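Predict structure. Chain length: 276.
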Amino acid sequence: MNQVRVALYQAQSGIDPAANAERLAAAIGQAAEGGAAMLFTPEMSGMLDRNRERAWAKARPEADDAVLAAVRAAAAEAGIWVHLGSLALKGEGGKLVNRGFVIDGSGEVRARYDKIHLFDVDLPTGESWRESAMYDAGREAVIVADTPVGRLGLTICYDLRFPELFQRLSDAGAEVVAVPAAFTVPTGRAHWEILMRARAIEAELFIVAAAQAGHHEDGRDTYGHSLVADPWGELVLEMGGEPGLAFAEIDLARIAEVRARIPVHQHRRAIPPVAN
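Prediction complete.
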């Protein structure tokens, strides 16, 4: 059977990990009750806080993180897989890591992915972001085999702007790529949907993007509009700007159908050096 039901949790995460863990556990239970085989959650599901000192004080190493433990327990209780979009965890180099997890229906961690591309930018609105000042970048692309949605490729937020990562995942056999995010409102309005659909079309696979939404305790506003895009670039789900839980049906047979119509995987060639 190629069709699978998934759930997306569009969160409004705050600065209190315990409160966020409680909401995540509730969403896991609701997703299972709604018949989903897998739940997808946003970037920074455990704590969304741009105050560096406060975030560092609350962050824990992976082995001691209470949010991860709560999600694993809730997944096991509900018998549902969870893509925990990401958590801010203390790494080994004196900085945090932005790490996503794939957790199976028995609560076991099947895979981890550290965000490769870090968002350092000054926006015209006056907002300034320097992820590299607080986070270490990941160094490995990751695919998880044998999930309820087939072969799942992992990315996080700003990775969306680097199509070569999605191509690498597609070439390695990914059928679905998760893009958990906490997009700002200006960039979300301008680029969120068009980039998600572009990555789905280019790589000829499904994109599942669970996002943060609304006004947060740390003062930021995030765009929301969690979505599922199919390999033809059509939206299977689009959630709007309010927090909540939604469901979508993913038909994996659609991948072969689209790849037969436009066989870019067969036609791809190594690009020669640019002539001067």
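Summary: Residues 73 and 107 are 6 Å apart (CA to CA).
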